[in-house]
Amino acid sequence: MSLTDKLSMLMARPGGDNAQKDDVPWWMRYAGRGVGTVGGFIAIILGLLNCISIVLLDVGCLIAGIWQMLAGFIVIVCEAPCCCFFIDYVQTLSDKMETRPYWNKAACYVGLSVPPFFMCFISMSTWFGSGLIFATGIIYGMMALGKKGSIEDMRTSAANLEAGSGQPTSAPRANLVTNEQPVSFTGVPVRN
């Protein structure tokens, strides 16, 4: 048994099917889960520091700190439910998020991380705490894009494009309409 198999067995969710459902590399899965877990804890701590800014009568940073702590808790619940085993609904929410596509997780994490920036832009704790949640969303977004093609596939595609044969319909040079006419400038309208 290899080291990666042992790590996968340790990181596997209890009660979940351990079959790999897609072709995302193992290191990217662990990076998303690790950055999400660590980033969630750091976001909670730095959100608490933002809440202390009420001493300076900065209500925007107080609301941003509360939002950041809530976002950090949600990310921890979704990525590491073992950290919150004392709350009943955590495993249910985590299982629901685990069945969702990666782009749903990416949109959720990016959507959770953006509002504190608008409320308390000058605070470094907002930048770092919410930035880690944003980075988790970016990692899941990259996982949603999928695996890159093999080098042979990319070479043949590039050769076909250079030769002009077999252009895919999604190429930037593909025509949208078969009967398109060139755009011409008719001049400035003349007043009567």
TrEMBL record:
<keyword id="KW-0106">Calcium</keyword>
<keyword id="KW-1133">Transmembrane helix</keyword>
<feature type="transmembrane region" description="Helical">
    <location>
        <begin position="125"/>
        <end position="145"/>
    </location>
</feature>
<dbReference type="GO" id="GO:0005768">
    <property type="term" value="C:endosome"/>
</dbReference>
<feature type="transmembrane region" description="Helical">
    <location>
        <begin position="35"/>
        <end position="57"/>
    </location>
</feature>
<keyword id="KW-0109">Calcium transport</keyword>
<comment type="subunit">
    <text>Homomultimer. Associates with the dally/ magu complex.</text>
</comment>
<dbReference type="GO" id="GO:0006897">
    <property type="term" value="P:endocytosis"/>
</dbReference>
<keyword id="KW-0966">Cell projection</keyword>
<keyword id="KW-0812">Transmembrane</keyword>
<keyword id="KW-0472">Membrane</keyword>
<keyword id="KW-0406">Ion transport</keyword>
<protein>
    <recommendedName>
        <fullName>Calcium channel flower</fullName>
    </recommendedName>
</protein>
<dbReference type="Pfam" id="PF10233">
    <property type="entry name" value="Cg6151-P"/>
</dbReference>
<keyword id="KW-0968">Cytoplasmic vesicle</keyword>
<keyword id="KW-0407">Ion channel</keyword>
<dbReference type="GO" id="GO:0030672">
    <property type="term" value="C:synaptic vesicle membrane"/>
</dbReference>
<keyword id="KW-0967">Endosome</keyword>
<dbReference type="InterPro" id="IPR019365">
    <property type="entry name" value="TVP18/Ca-channel_flower"/>
</dbReference>
<dbReference type="GO" id="GO:0042734">
    <property type="term" value="C:presynaptic membrane"/>
</dbReference>
<keyword id="KW-0107">Calcium channel</keyword>
<dbReference type="GO" id="GO:0005262">
    <property type="term" value="F:calcium channel activity"/>
</dbReference>
<keyword id="KW-0254">Endocytosis</keyword>
<comment type="similarity">
    <text>Belongs to the calcium channel flower family.</text>
</comment>
<feature type="transmembrane region" description="Helical">
    <location>
        <begin position="69"/>
        <end position="90"/>
    </location>
</feature>
<keyword id="KW-0813">Transport</keyword>
